[in-house]
Amino acid sequence: MRTRNIRQWGAGIAGGLVAVLALAGCAGDDLGGGTTGGGDTDADCSAFEQYGSFDGDQVTMSSTISDQEADQLEESWADFVACTGITIEHNGTNEFESQIFVQVEGGNAPDLAIFPQPGLMQRMHGDGHLVPAGDDVVATANENLAALWPDRR
Asked: Do 48 and 96 share a structural domain?
């Protein structure tokens, strides 16, 4: 019974992470993160055509991911950025846990956040600061992830 509860808890948290945990509010202060912008690419953009073109649009993302891991994270979305024209400003900081609350409560939340711990995300959810994943995100998760991940019980 305990294993089932842990799996359900984990599945709910993972489902939230799949949605990339969009936060309410607008982006603002530059806390020193890196930026990945659109540009020329040798990438096959056919996989990204469904998203459209957003030249000049920007998305802010906060996380605890920094240094070499941040470089690798930014490389992971390089083709998406190049093909869609969306600029992703990633702020990886060791102060994420305290800064995210300051930003959200100050009306300066990032567009996206990668939470390092489920309790922190649960607190944000309890305070009404998380935006539910859209139907298209849920459909994609259901289609592409193991059955355990999108479980929202």
From this structure: yes
Residue 125 corresponds to which amino acid?
A: H
Give the domain range for residue 117: 22-131
Residue 101 CA to residue 5 CA, distance in Å, equals 28
DSSP-derived pairing of the beta strands 34-36 and 87-92 = antiparallel
Q: Which residues sit opposite 34 in a β-bridge?
A: 90
6, 45: one domain: no
> Is 146 found in the same domain as 113?
no
Average pLDDT over residues 140-149: 80
Total domains in the fold of the chain: 2
Same-domain pairing of 106 and 47: yes
Give the chain's mean pLDDT. Answer: 77
State the pairing for strand pair 58-63/87-92.
Answer: parallel
Contacts with 18 (C-beta within 8 Å, 6 or more apart), sequence order: 133, 137, 141, 145, 149, 150
Half-sphere exposure of 6 (CA within 13 A, CB side): 3
Which tops the pLDDT comparison, 103 or 26? 103
User: Does the reported pTM lie above 0.90?
Assistant: no
Name residue, tokens 């930014």. 74
Residue 41 pLDDT grade (very low, low, confident, very high; cuts 50, 70, 90): low
